[in-house]
Specification:
The complex is a heterodimer. In chain A, 37% of the residues lie in helices and 18% in strands. By secondary structure, chain A is α+β, with helices and mostly antiparallel strands. Chain A is globular and about 65 Å long. Chain B is an alpha+beta fold. In chain B, the strands form two sheets. A two-stranded antiparallel ribbon of chain B has the order 1-4. A two-stranded antiparallel ribbon of chain B has the order 2-3. The chains are: A alpha+beta, B alpha+beta. The interface between A and B is large, with 48 and 29 residues.
């Protein structure tokens, strides 16, 4: 087998907000060769490009410490506070740079930025509807970043799936990737690697998340580095028939979530139904199912659709405006009750990194949703998290590279990895399985309410047993007809690895916090569980799980003392 | 889900092929066209339709049913 070879100083895997900012800041910090690889196009296929682009910026008139408290409280005090603080305090500077590169956020006639609250936060505000050329939303920011990154000098490697990393002498040495059209392998000798591959959606029911399949999680895990917060799975809601982004807005402005008895039930679970977090809505739905009050559930918006909700969601940029126009064309009337279901969205854990974005393996960096920072999911903060951590990790990689030696990945190791990665190609015959089947079986495990919403010990153990069965019995039988299916096969492996991490971490945290709810441990326990659940691969291929107490005494924001009311 | 790619309007610029996050398209260089090769993998994000310079692509908003919680 011939393996094409390329050399670079920094290899960035993924090209959304985090990957693009990392590319820009690494070049600005003097890294000579920055290569960006993506399993789809460079930047144009990212989730960042499809989002509405709401972003939190902390400006000079804002009280940074109050905003930091908002973020830390909303995240159940599990935030890596120094890293969050750094991202927050440098966000204004990133706004200035984006404007220099042509992005415009709306301003009032008096020249003030127009900002709105973000659900889940008390004080901080976000900007919406960024513009660049003829784009509005996440695509405006991505297009501007892409342009700036290319002009800064990067090598682009689109349509290549990284299937393995390589290390040598205790540091990262490179990556093996497959061409998405031909399945041809390519070895990247890289002195540093930065993973910015977003998170894992398990291809749930939410919108535009099929590309986030936990690729970076599995790549990092295989290298023996620690991952944290893998127990936090954010489940949103939506229609089973079509995509919908903005359930929170809909319920805030006149929409009602109804059970099978056509009753609005949220009030019995939450004192202020409008302020309920999305995962609380989903947990309430699951409880209603248990009580025999559903499914089906419906969202009923009535007049509020035409008067308030529709105009707001049409104007926001990203996916929704065109989606709503299409639904109009089909005659789907959102004034009428629409069936509503849970929609698994995002696993919020990731690679544990230091303040420079480096993982436990020298030369391996992470950023964006691939990095563990905090467990929640909040509009405006996710985007700023991605941008800020990307910029910081790119700089961290540059500092590492200034002092590190050449990349010398072993070619025999690369050859072995390439054989393994392509072996399932063309193997279909009796006894072989297809990636779509394994993915569906994985989803039937992961989307169960007692696994993803109201977790039970029994449900998690059962799910773990089935996941291990899939990994040990089904995966070895996987076959791929062509390069397209081979990529799906590796994505299925990545989702299964993410599922196992999620299940073991969920079994470990014996309390409830943020989106993690344990039936047997329904209370938040700050005495024992103000800690991170870290996991890593051990030498005998098992999983080592450790809890690390948060050094909360050293942090600026503390939870209220036990006994005080929250 | 993606409904239709109009071969008469397609110029073979390949933007949809590059941009699709789900690798739905394949190029037909000898015919200066693109075809929908993996329709079932479409995630209904509309990226292809929005970026097609010739307005040759039509994506419908209804999606294939997925595994549900209950």
């Amino acid at each position: 087998m011939e393996i094409e070879r390329a050399e670079t100083d920094l290899l960035i895997v993924g090209s959304g907000f985090a990957g693009l900012w990392a590319a820009i800041s690494a070049r600005d910090a003097g890294v000579e060769r920055v290569a960006v690889v993506d399993k789809a196009s460079i930047a144009m296929s990212s989730q960042s490009r499809l989002c509405a682009g709401a972003t939190i910026y902390c400006l000079s008139e804002d009280d940074g410490q109050v905003w930091l408290r908002d973020i830390v409280e909303a995240n159940g005090f599990l935030s890596r506070q120094p890293l969050v603080e750094e991202i927050l305090m440098t966000s204004g500077e990133r706004l200035r740079k984006l404007e220099e590169w042509g992005v415009r956020y709306p301003k009032s006639p008096a020249g003030e930025y127009m900002r709105i609250p973000s659900r889940g936060f008390q004080h901080l505000k976000m900007m919406v509807m960024p513009r660049f050329r003829d784009r509005v939303g996440g695509s405006a920011v991505v297009d501007a970043l892409r342009r700036r990154a290319i002009r800064g000098g990067i090598r682009r490697h689109p349509r290549m799936l990284v299937t393995d990393l390589l290390q040598r002498d205790g540091r990262v040495a490179g990556a093996l990737a497959l061409d998405r059209s031909t399945a041809q392998p390519k070895l990247f000798a890289a002195r540093a690697v930065l993973l910015a591959t977003a998170d894992c959606s398990f291809r749930g029911n939410y919108v535009c998340t099929d590309g986030t399949t936990g690729d970076g999680f599995r790549l990092a895990y295989d290298q023996g580095v620690r991952l944290s917060n893998m127990e936090f799975l954010c489940t949103n809601t939506g229609s089973p028939r079509f995509g919908f982004e903005g359930t929170g807005v809909a319920l805030k402005w006149g929409g009602r979530l109804l059970n099978a008895q056509h009753e609005s039930f949220m009030e019995s679970y939450h004192p202020d139904a409008n302020a309920a977090e999305i995962h609380e809505l989903v947990q309430a739905m699951a409880r209603e199912v248990r009580a025999g009050n559903g499914p089906p559930f419906h969202v009923e918006m009535g007049d509020a659709w035409q008067s308030r909700i529709g105009p707001a969601l049409r104007g926001i940029g990203g996916f929704m405006p065109v989606n709503l126009a299409k639904l109009d064309e089909l005659g789907i009337d959102l004034e009428q009750p629409q069936e509503w279901v849970p929609a698994v969205q995002s696993l919020r854990g990731g690679v544990r990194v230091g303040p420079d974005g480096q993982s436990d393996l020298p030369g391996l960096f992470a950023a964006g949703l691939t990095e563990a920072l905090d467990p929640g999911l909040f509009n405006g903060w996710s985007t700023m998290r991605a941008m800020g951590s990307g910029e910081r990790s790119g700089r961290g990689a540059a500092a590492y590279l200034a002092a590190s030696g050449p990349a010398l990945p072993r070619s025999d190791e690369a050859l072995e990895l390439a054989h393994r990665a392509t072996a399932p190609l063309g193997q279909s015959g009796s006894g072989s399985l297809r990636p779509d089947d394994v993915i569906e079986r994985m989803q039937r495990v992961m989307f169960r309410p007692d696994v993803g919403i109201l977790k039970t010990h029994e449900g998690l153990e059962q799910a773990l047993a089935e996941t291990l069965e899939l990994r040990n019995s089904a995966v070895p039988k996987l076959a791929a007809e062509d390069a397209h299916e081979l990529v799906k096969l590796h994505e299925a492996r990545n989702m299964l690895a993410s599922a196992e991490m999620y299940l073991r971490a969920s079994l470990t945290r014996c309390e409830s916090r943020s989106s993690h709810f344990r039936e047997e441990h329904p209370e938040t326990d700050n005495d024992r569980w103000l800690a991170w659940v870290n996991l890593r691969r051990s030498v005998d291929d098992g999983m080592v799980i450790e809890t690390e107490k948060i050094p909360i005494g050293d942090y600026p924001i503390q939870p209220p003392p036990a006994g005080a009311s929250q | 889900m993606i409904d239709h790619l109009d071969e008469d309007l397609c110029t073979g610029c390949n933007i949809c092929f590059y941009i699709c996050p789900c690798d739905v398209f394949r190029r037909l260089p000898e015919r200066r066209l693109v075809e929908i090769a993996y329709r079932d993998d479409c995630q209904t994000c509309f990226a292809c339709e929005l970026d097609c310079p010739e307005d040759a692509i039509d994506v419908g908003p209804l999606r294939k049913p997925r595994v549900q919680a209950w």
